[in-house]
Amino acid sequence: xxxxxIGVAATGVGIALAAAPTATADDGAxxxxxxxxxxxxxxxTQSTRSTRSxxxxxxxxxxSAQRRSTGASTGASRFGAGPVRQQAADSPEAAVSARASxxxxxxxxxxxxxxxxARVPLAPRTAAQGATPTGVLGDIAAFFGLPGAPATPxxxxxxxxxxxxxxxxxxxxxxxxPAVTNPATVITGLFRQVLRKDPSADELQRYSxxxxxxxxxxxxxxxxxxxxxxxxxxxxxxxxxxxxxATAQELSWxxxxxxxxxxxxxxxxxxxxxxxFFAASNAGGGPNGPSPSATSFVDxxxxxxxxxxxDPVAGPTYVQQIQSGRPTGLVATxxxxxxxxxxxKVLETFQVLGLSSIPEVVQNYVDNWFWYGGLSGINxxxxxxxxNIFNIEAGRVQxxxxxxxxxxxRLLLAPYTTDKETGFVGVFNxxxxxxxxxxxCKTTPSTCVNLDLYELLTTGGAVRGLxxxxxxxxASFMPVLxxxxxxxxxxxxxxxxxxxxxxxxxxxxxxNNVDSTVVGPILTSADGQYVVDGHHxxxxxxxxxxxxxxxxxxxxxxPEPTEALKQTQVAIAAQTGFLEGQNAGADxxxxxxxxxxxxxxxxxxxxxxxxxxxxxxxxTKPAVLEAFTTPLGLEGQTDDQKLDSIEAYLWQNVLLxxxxxxxxxxxxxxxxxxxxxxxxxxxxxxxxxGPSALSFSxxxxxxxx
Length: 705
Known about the structure:
mainly alpha
């Protein structure tokens, strides 16, 4: 009988939650005064309730402070204890003081406003920020989550089970909602946490009425079920998994799915199981084009959903399953049910709400995932908790800096081209006012034109929710014949000018040693598949001995080569404050004719002079000819014949490079390529190494859902 009564009540609640906003909107000017009276009444009513607190343990997170003082177990859930009521303080100041004394022993992240802004999840303007009254038909469509429904903050049909769960937890746990001193402040704070915006006057009025009728549980379930929030979740997952915003059709269908019972994790798995995701797992390629595989799919699954490299045990198992014919959709579904994924999602919520992620607290939510109602159940109970309400009323929930977040999204979505307006480097220079070596946000912060964006770019990865540990740098020797350039220009002079015209001494080592270091290690990615920085050191060794190995530091898996370029440029910007560019010249190895090539090589050898050492200033030609004589079998030839033979040999390797090591699809020109020096190479890699504070992938910052 009790459950029947609860079910009937829930049905009425759903109708009332849907009707309340429309009814309020129709009240006109008189409704504002009515809302104020309702708010005052609610304050009076709520002040007599005991407080539900969130955090040091799940028990401390959801129970009243009074129950803890009477010996409640710190490891229990919020279910199953009798209520203990306490009269709230008379004044707001005293009320805050009283709540502070009852707040659990969780360390609340009371960060600066700038740090708080860095925690904001990136929600699309068309979804979370475009919430305006839409008319009766729009409200009806939004309430039922119909495809194409407008993005509004109003409650939807999904608010009914959410509200019911929160109410049942309170009833069975003997806990009443937390005391609220200022409903308008709390509603505004919840808007900021869920929708990442301040409510309009009309929205505040609507939710004030919802609060007066249904309390905090009604407000939380209303906002969390809204189409505005659901659309932001859909868009965030598309950015996170496919590195692009959702299309209008995808946004509409995804919102409908979330409204009608598909959980956030299963929705994420549905995207990860698509052909597009599989293809995106290895979207680079040289002569053979993109080459996605079971291994690259699993790599991308871990990188996007948990921010880590594949688990050494589970990762190969997933690969084997796919190779054996198991659909990627089933593998993705299994993946989002793992403890590792659930742990990341719980940590994201703690990050959004500014709660300290005490291991035993977080683990309890992971272990009791279904008991707490899955991700939406955990999120709503934490949103409605006493600790969260206290934080809001204490002014710890700031409106995120959406301007910086949107600018960073624009930067990361920019194509990696040489276009000065739309390309990645062009957008970077625009957003930061064309920084230089002497004037930039790192060297001269006082002159920085966009300090908030620079801080988010260089430190946002530490507070984005997902662990930023997908980049793992390793040093080794890579076969030059295996590497593919990621720029479409490689200069002949920059490749051969040094060994043929300034210091020929390394040439013998390039032939005689399997492993060679050309000045210093180059930067590669994808386990030695792509050259990221050091193209001319690679091409120097390639042209002299294409079967040698070159010293390299590899940044690990990337879904496509431009991702490695972007993350390297972000690290360079963090280290130096600006992005330096260099021109390749007019002697591109991929386009130069044999006649021009021979002419330039002859000029380099004939005009070469030792750069330093005992032979400084002397011609390098004799040493060059001698270095090639034995490896190429040129004994008995004249100097002119040797020169012709060397040119023919080098040209043969140019043709080999064009056939086997052509630059990747859509490779940019040299002016926008990452440029490190001997002083910045290792510091830049250190910034990229996970766990990293840099923001070079989605999500930019943490979000709910």
